[in-house]
Amino acid sequence: MKKTLYTNILLLFFCLANAQKFPLMKNGKFDSEKFESLKVKETKEYSVSIQDQEPNCKKIIMKNDRSVFYYCGPFDKKIAREKAEYSEAREFTESIDGFQCIVNEYYTYDYLGRVTEFRKYLSKIPALTNLTIESFPLEEKRYENGKLVSERKTIFNQKIHNVLIATIILYNRERLGMQGSDQVSISNYDNSKVTFKNNTVQLDKKGPNDPEISRNEIIKAFTSLKRGFSMYRSINTTPEDNPDEWVIFFTKDGKEYTISIEDETGRGFSTRKEPRDIREVI
Asked: Which of 32, 85, 142, 168 measures 20 to 30 Å from 261, CA to CA?
């Protein structure tokens, strides 16, 4: 099966410190001729390297600010020029809901250097060492002949910190999943005074002088669970599809759980893979 540009990009480890400079962009377009002629080199301004496992991808490091760019060209050298496609990958830090997050951006360009597709994902929250983010789209754009034809952005009706608080509360329930599922609701956390005591969450009525929920305290409480969690954000595009959801997986006492929270309402359920255990019920 032919390898796609995105598949190969995802195999790379990349970092971008400054997204304002584009070494292979010219007049707003990708410069394919410069990419093809670019050789492995070391200069005062930049260095160029090529990885053995990805000979059609080039890594450029700008020495003034250590910005790093990855570009990939056609993997099939026999492909007609007008069908050639190029790609670019970037990674940088962005603040989302008060958390410093790692965000990935992917671009594809046609043979004329015009952007054809753009995708942006949340890939990691470094402070949450026990949380793996598997698929979390933030933005997507498609172009035809260099003109934007479609655009979609992820709208957050629920906030990351509220989802994390709901996960902490649910995880600490003594009889989690005993009846097959547990209801989840995160709609009022922003109006609550939230404190964390002995790895559990205490919710009180928020007073007018109470500060905003501390992200550092949430990080401390979440990582103290000492379990691996994985999360993704589903995006559905047609009315007949299921609602947009936040989905979190974790294991407790050898049992697997899934939390599904509707983004629009903040309500959902946690279900256990094997919901009934007669010995525990007795």
From this structure: 142
